[in-house]
Specification:
- The complex is a heterodimer of chains A (395) and B (284).
- Chain A is of the alpha/beta class and 395 residues long.
- Helices cover 42% and strands 22% of the residues of chain A.
- In chain A, the strands form two sheets. In chain A, strands 6, 7, 8, 9, 10, 11, 12, 13 and 14 form a nine-stranded mixed beta sheet that branches.
- In chain A, β11 and β12 form a beta hairpin.
- Chain B has one domain.
- In chain B, 73% of the residues lie in helices and 3% in strands.
- Chain B has a two-stranded antiparallel ribbon.
- In chain B, a hairpin with a 2-residue loop joins β1 and β2.
- The chains are: A alpha/beta (395), B mainly alpha (284).
- Chains A and B meet through β7, α7, α8 and α9 of A and α1, β2, α9, α10 and α11 of B.
C-alpha cells in the first residue's frame, strides 16, 4: 500500500545523510540504552484510515509469526513482545510515534505495512538507528540505511506477468489506468518497458485522483472506444472495486482482459463474482497458492484464530514473512545494535515466508511470483515464476 | 449516431439524474427546514447496506426498498426528535450535530459489518441497444427511475395540498402555524421524507458501488456543490444544480479526464460562491 510521495525531499536528503552517519555512530551511542531480555518489536499496521480494511489480517498474521517464533525460543533466545502503532496515521504522527518507540520504549526493531509517505516519515525519524522492515508491495527505490524491504517491487509484479499475458493471450494493445500517485506511475513505467519488449502498444493511459469519489463511466467508455486487448490496472482499494464493477457492467469483460497489480482477496470480494471474468492479478502471495508451506501456514492461521479467523490476504502474509525476515536478520547479525553488521547480514539472507523461503539481496527480496486468474471471488494460479529479481540496486 | 458518442451522452444523463436523486432528500430538508443534514450521505450508505442485507438473506432485490425505507424512517424520526428539532433555527449547531451523527452512523455500521467492501449483485444484467450503443440495462433503468422520481416529486410538491402547506410553512412559519397548519408535524415528516429519499438512492446505487461504511462521504461534497450552484431551497434549483455539476463533470471527464472534471466543478462552485452566492434559483 503506497501513497502520495511526501514533498519533503530536503528533509529526506538530510535524513539520508544523517542516517548514513548514524549508521556508523549509533552502535556506540545506543548500546548501553537497550535492555537485554525481551525483544521489543514495534509494528506499524493499518489500525485506522482507508487501508484499515487490511488491519485485521495484518495484525493476526503478525501475531501468528510472533507466537510461532516465541514457541520456538524467540529471536536470538529473547522472547518477542509486540508494541503496536498505527500505520494508518498521518506521516507526522507516525514519525512522532516512531521517535517515542525508539527513545522511550527502546524497541529493538520496527516493522511496518503502510503507505510510502508514512514509510519516509518513519525512515526520517529512525535515521537508521533501529532496523526497520517494510513489507507491503511498493514502487521500489527505498535504499536508506538499516531499512529492509520485503515488499514486491514493480519489476517483480510486472515483468513476468506482462510477458506471460502478451504471449498467452496474444495481447497487442494495452490501456493503462491507475490512481495518480507514485506507485501506479512507477509500475506503469515498468509496464510500458515490458509491453514494448513484447511488441505491444499502449493505446491509452490515464490517472485518477487518489481519495476522490471517482466514477468510471467515462474511463470505461474511452476503453470501449480504444478496444485494447489488455487493461493494466493500478487503481487501489475502492477505486479498483468500482472500476472493475463498472467495466463488467458495460459488458467489456466479455471481450477485454484485465490485469490488476493490487488485487488481493478482500478487494476481489468487493468486485464480486459476476464482475471478475477475464481479470488477472500478479503478486507474491495468494491464499489459494497450493504449496505445502502455504497449507501449513493457513492451517496454523485457522487454528490460532479459531473459531472465527479474520480474512487472510497478501497484506497479512507479507507481515508474517516480514517477522520471520526480522528474526533471520537479527540472528545472522548477532543483534540489532550494529547497523553495519545488519546490512552486511542482509545480503543473501534466507528466511521463511508463508509459501516457502525467500532470499534477500540489496535489502530487497528475490521471490517467487504468481499470476492468478479470478474465478468468481477466488484466485486460480495459472503460472508461477521462480526467484524473480527485484530490480533494486541498494548497496 | 456514433455509438461512443451515444454512450457518452447516456453517461451524462445517468450521472445527472442519479446525482439529482441523491441530492433530492438533502435539498428537500434544507429547502424546507433550513437544516443542512451532513449525515445525508450516511442514510444513502445505510440504504446500500439494506440492499446488501437483503441479498445476503437470498431475498429479491426489491425487498430492499421497503426495508431501507423502514430503517431510515425510524432512524429519521429518532434523529429529528432528539437532534434536529431542538436545534431548529440554529443552522451552525445543526451542521455540527449532523456531522457528529454521520460519524456515529459510520462507526455503528462498521461495528456490525466491518470495513470490508460488500458486493451487491446487479438485479438486472445485460445491456440494451440504444441507437447502436450497448448500454447496461440497470444503469438505463436507474436513469429512468431517477427522472420519474424527481419529476413525480416536483409534480406532487406543486399540485398537492401537502405541497401547498409545506410552501406556506417555508414562506412564513408563524403565519402558517396561526392558520392551523401543523408546523411541527410537517417539519418532522419532511425530515423523515428526506431520509427516506436518501435510503432509496442508496438501494438504487448499491449494485454499482463498493458498499462500505465510508460510502456516504463520497456523496456529501458533490451534493453541496449542487445546492451551491442551484440555489438553496427550490426543486428547480436542485435540478439545474445537478445538471450543471453532474453534467459539467461528466462531459469534461468524458473528453479530458476526471482530474479536469473535478477541477472544473471546483472552479464553478467557487465562482458561484463568489459571484452568485444564492445560486441560479434562489428562494424568494
Amino acid at each position: 500500500m503506497t501513497k502520495i510521495l511526501n514533498p519533503i525531499s530536503r528533509r529526506r536528503f538530510v535524513a539520508g545523510a544523517v542516517g548514513t552517519g548514524a549508521a556508523v555512530a549509533a552502535p556506540a551511542v545506543l548500546s548501553g540504552a537497550r535492555a537485554a531480555g525481551e525483544f521489543k518489536m514495534a509494528t506499524f499496521l493499518a489500525l485506522s484510515g482507508p487501508a484499515s480494511l487490511f488491519g485485521p489480517t495484518q495484525t493476526a498474521c503478525g501475531k501468528l509469526a510472533v507466537d510461532q517464533i516465541n514457541a520456538a525460543g524467540g529471536i536470538g533466545g529473547r522472547k518477542v513482545t509486540v508494541i503496536p502503532a498505527d500505520g494508518g496515521a498521518t506521516p507526522a504522527e507516525a514519525a512522532k510515534a516512531a521517535i517515542r518507540l525508539m527513545l522511550r520504549d527502546k524497541v529493538d526493531l520496527v516493522l511496518g505495512s503502510h503507505n510510502s509517505a508514512v514509510r519516509e516519515a518513519i525512515v526520517a525519524a529512525l535515521k537508521g538507528r533501529v532496523p526497520y522492515v517494510y513489507t507491503p508491495l511498493y514502487e521500489g527505490g527505498e535504499c536508506n540505511p538499516n531499512v529492509y524491504v520485503t515488499a514486491d517491487t514493480p519489476q517483480q509484479q510486472v515483468q513476468p506477468s506482462i510477458s506471460w499475458l502478451a504471449k498467452t493471450l496474444g495481447a497487442k494493445t494495452y490501456y493503462l489506468i491507475g490512481n495518480d500517485y507514485v506507485w501506479p506511475h512507477k509500475t506503469n513505467e515498468q509496464a510500458k518497458k515490458y509491453i514494448a519488449a513484447a511488441g505491444g502498444k499502449v493505446v491509452g493511459e490515464e490517472y485518477l485522483p487518489l481519495g476522490a469519489p471517482n466514477k468510471f463511466e467515462d474511463a470505461v467508455t474511452r476503453i470501449k472506444a480504444k478496444k485494447p486487448d489488455l487493461v493494466v490496472i493500478t487503481l487501489v482499494g475502492g477505486d479498483n472495486v468500482n472500476f472493475n464493477r463498472t467495466f463488467a457492467g458495460f459488458g467489456l469483460d466479455k471481450s477485454i482482459k484485465r490485469v490488476s497489480y493490487l488485487l488481493e482477496e478482500l478487494t476481489l470480494f468487493g468486485i464480486g463474482a459476476e464482475n471478475s471474468a477475464g481479470l488477472y492479478s500478479a503478486m507474491s502471495y495468494f491464499v489459494n497458492e497450493k504449496s505445502e508451506p502455504n497449507a501449513k501456514f493457513k492451517a496454523g492461521f485457522a487454528k490460532a484464530f479459531a473459531p472465527k479467523p479474520p480474512p487472510l490476504s497478501m497484506l497479512g502474509a507479507d507481515v508474517y514473512s516480514g517477522v520471520y525476515c526480522a528474526k533471520a536478520l537479527v540472528e545472522k547479525a548477532g543483534g540489532t545494535k550494529d547497523a553495519g553488521k545488519l546490512m552486511a547480514a542482509a545480503n543473501n539472507l534466507q528466511y521463511r515466508t508463508a509459501t516457502g523461503t525467500a532470499v534477500m539481496t540489496n535489502r530487497h527480496v528475490v521471490k517467487d511470483m504468481y499470476l492468478a486468474e479470478c474465478k468468481g471471488t477466488s484466485f486460480d494460479i495459472v503460472e508461477s515464476f521462480k526467484a524473480v529479481a527485484h530490480g533494486q540496486t541498494c548497496s | 449516431m456514433d455509438p461512443i458518442l451515444t454512450t457518452n451522452i447516456l453517461n451524462v444523463v445517468y450521472e445527472v439524474s442519479t446525482l439529482a436523486v441523491v441530492v433530492l432528500g438533502l435539498a428537500v430538508v434544507f429547502g424546507l427546514l433550513g437544516v443542512m443534514n451532513l449525515a445525508h450521505g450516511e442514510f444513502v450508505m445505510i440504504g446500500a447496506y439494506c440492499a446488501f442485507f437483503v441479498q445476503a438473506q437470498n431475498l429479491p432485490f426489491l425487498a430492499a426498498v421497503p426495508l431501507a425505507l423502514l430503517v431510515c424512517a425510524v432512524l429519521g424520526l429518532v434523529v429529528e426528535r432528539l437532534l434536529v428539532r431542538p436545534l431548529y433555527a440554529r443552522p451552525f449547531d445543526t451542521l455540527l450535530a449532523t456531522w457528529g451523527l454521520s460519524m456515529l452512523l459510520r462507526e455503528a455500521v462498521e461495528a456490525v459489518y466491518g470495513r470490508a467492501f460488500r458486493s451487491v449483485a446487479t438485479p438486472l444484467t445485460g445491456s440494451v441497444d440504444v441507437f447502436g450503443a450497448d448500454y447496461p440495462s440497470y444503469r438505463l433503468l436507474l436513469t429512468v427511475v431517477s427522472i420519474a422520481l424527481v419529476a413525480g416529486l416536483v409534480w406532487w410538491f406543486v399540485r398537492s395540498a401537502t405541497g401547498r402547506r409545506i410552501r406556506a410553512v417555508v414562506n412564513n412559519p408563524e403565519l402558517a402555524g396561526s392558520v392551523g397548519i401543523p408546523v411541527t408535524g410537517l417539519a418532522r415528516n419532511t425530515f423523515v421524507f428526506g431520509c427516506c429519499l436518501a435510503a432509496l438512492a442508496g438501494v438504487m446505487l448499491a449494485p454499482l458501488l463498493p458498499v462500505n461504511p465510508t460510502l456516504g462521504l463520497d456523496f456529501i461534497l458533490k451534493s453541496f456543490f449542487v445546492l451551491v450552484v442551484g440555489g438553496l431551497g427550490s426543486l428547480v434549483g436542485l435540478i439545474s444544480g445537478s445538471g450543471v455539476i453532474g453534467g459539467v463533470e461528466s462531459v469534461v471527464s468524458a473528453f479530458l479526464d476526471r482530474t479536469y472534471g473535478y477541477t472544473t466543478v471546483l472552479i464553478i462552485a467557487i465562482l458561484f460562491l463568489w459571484l452568485r452566492p444564492n445560486g441560479l434559483f434562489p428562494r424568494t
